[in-house]
C-alpha cells in the first residue's frame, strides 16, 4: 500500500477503477440537480507533493483552509460551491472537447452511452467544481485529470447536498488563494492510513444559549494534523468524503470515536451566520 502512494500511474489507475466500479452500482446524480439550491460540487483533490524539502514527492490530499471572511471559518475543505446553471452549462460543453478533462476520462463514453442523463449532470457538477477551484485557489482546469465521482454527502448544519468529484492535479505546485481561503494545505494520504492521527471531536459553541444544544455534547470523528505548534482538525462532511475514499480505494476504516482521545473545537456565532 505504501508503495502505491509513491507510484503515480498505479495510484491513478486504482482510484479511477475503484470509483467507476462503485458508481456502477446505483444512480448517484438525481434529476433536478441543475435547478436545486441545495446541490453543490466539490473537487476532492489529489496530487504529488513533498512533505518537507528532503522527502520525495508522495500522494497528498489538497485542502483549502477557509478564511475568517466566510462561513465555517477555519475548517479544512475541498474547493467547491453551488452550481451556476448558465455558466456551468457552457463550461461543461468545453470540458467535453478533445484533450480536455472529460474527454480524457476513460469512462466518459460509458457514461454517455449507459447513463446519458446522469452524464450531463456529472459534467455540470464537474464544471462547477473546476470553476470554484479556479476562483478560490487559481487551480488550472487544464492541469486537472478527472478520476471519477464519489457518493454525495449531506451537510448536517446547512441544507446542502455535496457531490464530490475526485481529481488529480498534474503538475501545478503553487496556488494563489482568494479572499475565501486562508491557505492551502497538503496532507500525505499515508497519514490518513495511520490510526494514531484520529480523535473524537467535541463541538463547543461560543454563540450563546441558542447554540448550546445536544449537538454540543456529541462526539464527532475527526482527523488531527499537527505541524509544530499548529493543529488542524478535519471533521464533518469533508472528513466523511475522505473516509469514503479511503475505504473504497484502500479498504481502510478509521478507529471508532469512543475508543479515541477527545479534542475540543470551539465555534463562534459567525461560524454559521457569516457570509449569509
What key phrases describe this protein's structure?
276 residues; alpha+beta; Nucleoside Triphosphate Pyrophosphohydrolase; 8-stranded mixed sheet; 4-stranded mixed sheet; 30% helix
CATH third-tier fold name: Nucleoside Triphosphate Pyrophosphohydrolase
What count of helical segments does DSSP give?
8
Q: Which structural category fits the helices and strands?
A: alpha+beta
Under the CATH scheme, the architecture is Alpha-Beta Complex
Give the fraction of residues assigned to helices.
25-40%
Question: What is shown here, in short?
Answer:
This protein is α+β, with helices and mostly antiparallel strands and 276 residues long.
Describe this structure in words.
By secondary structure, this protein is an alpha+beta fold. The protein has a single domain (4-273), classed as Nucleoside Triphosphate Pyrophosphohydrolase. It contains eight helices and twelve strands.
